[in-house]
Structures are given as C-alpha cells and as structure tokens.
Predict the 3D structure of the following.
Amino acid sequence: MTAPEPRYDPELLALLIASGDARESFTPEAILTRRAEWMPAPIDDVLAGRPIEHEERTIAGYEGADITVSILRSTQDDAPGPGFLHVHSGGMMIGTRFSGIEQLVDWVELFGGTCVTVEYRLAPEHQDPVPIEDSYAALLYTAENASQLGIDPHRLVVAGMSAGGGLAAGLVLLARDRNGPPLAGQMLMCPMLDERNDTESSHQFSHLGLWDRESNDTGWNALLGDRRHTDQVSIYASPALAPDLSGLPPAFVDVGSMEVFRDEDIEYARRIAAVGGDVELHVWPGAFHGFDFAFPQATLSRRALVARREWLARILEA
C-alpha cells in the first residue's frame, strides 16, 4: 500500500515553494559540499545591538583534543542566571556551533542567562563516540565553571535540534549514568534518536521531505560506520536504544507530524512518561523537519517558539 502524500501546513508549504528549496537526499558524496553551503550567519551579525557578550574558549574534548566553545552571556544582570548548553544540528555531519544559535540568543536575553555552544567534531571523520564525548566535555566544563560563567548550577539545561537534539538526549543519559552534573531540563527539538531508522514515519518519508529516510541513513552511517545495526551501538549515540529512561530531568520534546523523526520522538516521550518522568510533547500538525528553523515567521513556527519559551520558564522557575 502506497503511503498517502503528506498534508503540509498550507502556510509552511507556500513558504517552502517560494524559497525554491528542492533539496535532494543527502548522500555521502555531498557532505563536503553541504558543509560549505550550510554556514550560519556571522555571530557578530546575530548579536548586533543585543545586550549579549561573546567569548571563545578552547577546552579539552575527547581524548584531550582541543575543541572550541563559544560563551554567549547576558550583560543585563550580574546575578547568576540559567545556563544553556547548546548542541548544534546538522545530521552529525555538517553545521557549526552557531547553527540555530538565534533561538538560544533569544533565551539568553529573555532569561538573563548564559549559553555555551560547542564545536563538537563531525562525522564521518570523527565517528562515535567523538561527537557525544566532545559534547559531554563541554557540559562538564560548563558545570565546573558555572560561577565564572554567571550560571546558577541548579538551572542548567541542555538543548539541541535534530542531530543536536539526539546528542542532547545522549548527554542527559551520560550525566545520569556517570553521576555527572545535575540538569534542570532537556530541550529536544525534532531529535535524531534512533539509528534503526525503521519506524512508520521513516518509511513514509523515503525520498520525500527536507530530511528523508535516505538522508537519515547517510547521517547514521557516517556516525557509526560498521557498528551500525549491531549490538556495539551505544545508547548515548542512539538514545532510543536505552532500555531505561528513568531518573532523567524534565524533558521537552517536539516534532513535526510530517517528518522522519515523528514516530521515534513520540515513542521516546511516551517511554519517559511511562516511568514517571516529566515530559512535555508537541507534535506540530503539518510541519516538516526544521520548519521553525527555516521559516520562523510562520504561524506554526511562532507557536513552537512560544511553547519552548513557556516550558523553559516553568522549568527555570522550579
């Protein structure tokens, strides 16, 4: 039986058509080209006129390698504020620490906090566990230097979108299992969680959409190599494989109804709730992958952005 055509939100569909973005499946051969094409706006442009200061630091990543973190700190209040550890999107293969940073900058200004965003090393040159361990090193650095960074250690949240959302979920599991820093919450936006890539929504969006089943295979193959689909895959790389989701901080999970990650994200939220976890789930009707990132002006995107801010306000006040 042929899967029905997706019914995209009309406003988002019109914006997508007008943008001319007729993206093809992401192939291994396209990685370097996509890296060059998918560069975020200069951080100085993003911060222009905003009460936020930017500082870069070099820290020790996995196996002692140098990695870069950027610290974005509100200048409006000297009192410690919330901290946001940001892990960027890009299918594990592309992107920089400034990809999707605009939303984090909004949170820093709104909540008077500090964001640390990490330049984890990318696959396939750096396969698992490098990306997750680089990100965990940034989490440890943030927690250990919270006072210096202007962060209240009791209000530290990890956040990521897509591949960054999957890494953020993995960070939370690592922090739990290693008795790492206490976390106030995990913001998982359309997270990439399941290397099996075998849900109904995954098959529904084969050769279809801005991030299709084939692109997802490329990302997981790049990250895991020959270990993919074996018992050698770590739950921290593919959090959907974790047998136990208890003992986690409050979670926000959202996803579009018209994307590959829909079913794995709904299932992850369901499993957190099933063991008594605090989870808020949103399935945005008619939304494709990265809709709010691509078109933040759309009505549905604005709803998603507000829902995230409201969840953060609740978690940070608690």
About this structure: The first strand starts at residue 52 and ends at 60. Strands lie at 52-60, 66-74, 81-87, 114-118, 151-161, 185-189, 251-256, 279-284. The chain has a mean pLDDT of 96. The two ends are 48 Å apart (CA to CA).
